[in-house]
Amino acid sequence: MEINRPFVLFVYSLVISFMLAFPPFTLKLGGRVFNMGYAFILSPPEKGITAASVDVSLLTLQIISVTLVVAAAFFALHLMPNKTLLIQSKR
Questions:
Q1: Cα separation, 2 vs 80, whole angstroms
Q2: Contact in structure between 23 and 54 (CB atoms under 8 Å)
Q3: What is the pLDDT of residue 30?
Q4: CA distances, 62 to each of 24, 29, 75 (Å)
Q5: Which of 25-30's residues contact partners 24+ apart within 8 Å by CB, and which partners?
Q6: What pairs with residue 25 in β-bridges?
Q7: What's this model's pTM, rounded to 2 decimal places?
Q8: Long-range contacts of 31-40 (CB under 8 A, 24+ apart)
Q9: What pLDDT is attached to residue 84?
Q10: Who is most buried in 5, 26, 30, 51, counting CB within 10 A?
C-alpha cells in the first residue's frame, strides 16, 4: 500500500468528520458532571428529561491530538525522497 500526502489528508478529513458527527457528551446535574459517552450529534443521550451537552473541551483536545499526528505524518513524508511511504503486507 502506498501512503502519500493526499491519502493522509483524506484520512484526516474522514477522522475529523466522524469526531464532529459523534462528539463526547457530558451531563451536569446538581453540580456533578457525568460522562455520557459518544453519540450522534443530532440525538444526544438523555437521562430522564435532561439532555446531555457536547463536551467541547474534550472534543477540542481530540481534534488537536489528531492534527498533531497528521502534522507529524506530513513532516515525515516531506523528508522522504519520493514523498511516499510503502507498506508491504506479509503473505
A1: 13
A2: yes
A3: 85
A4: 10, 25, 20
A5: 25/52, 25/53, 25/54, 25/55, 26/52, 26/53, 26/55, 27/52, 27/53, 28/53
A6: 37, 54
A7: 0.78
A8: none
A9: 61
A10: 26
